[in-house]
Amino acid sequence: MTPSRYHERRWPATLAVLAVLTLQLVLPRQVTPGPWFLVPLLELGLLVPIVAVNPLHLTRETSGLRRLALLLVAALAAVNVVHLGQLVVLLTAGGTANPKVLVEATLLIWTTNVVVTALSLWETDRGGPFARDPRHRPASDRPDLLFPQMTAVPGWDPTSWWPSFVDYLFVAFTAATTFGPADTLPLTARAKLIIGGTASVSLVTIGLVAARAVNVL
Fold this sequence. Notes:
Layout: H1 3-6, H2 11-26, H3 38-53, H4 63-92, H5 99-124, H6 129-132, E1 145-146, H7 165-178, E2 185-186, H8 189-216
Antiparallel strand pairs: 1-2
Helix pairs in contact: 2-3, 2-5, 3-4, 4-5, 4-8, 5-7, 5-8, 7-8
């Protein structure tokens, strides 16, 4: 099997990060503290060296690249929480908020929450995407998530299957819509914290912000 088919694909996660940066750029200025372009520019600076080493597939990893990837995901998550906080302040500070701004900001923050969660799970499950490669995975490494395909479901070989970025994106979507896990169970503390954080952000975004926006409408 050629390396392009064997190694974990890097480009779906790269597109996801670029999508988050785009969402940050189009957020209403009322919920974007400071220069609106500064934070996405800094995050892009973190992304460039990661992609430069592994443009399409993960064929090489160092401890420095690993820390940089985790720092990027943490930055994306923290910035989205700040945006949510700014939106809550906007809603509770009194005065009349623009309904269009509220609905637009709510959708963008919720979508960012889903994508960032997928990136977080993709980067942490079993030590990250490079470590999940069958040639690199330690025999004793335990999964953070239990996917149905790993439970001897008919038609699936749990010894040869491992999740792609799309699988983590679906887990993130279900966590943000159902406020908890659906078909995939979190097994480790860090996976539970990620999914719990996703559900919390989603609950505040939908329950508080969206409800307020509908009332204003």
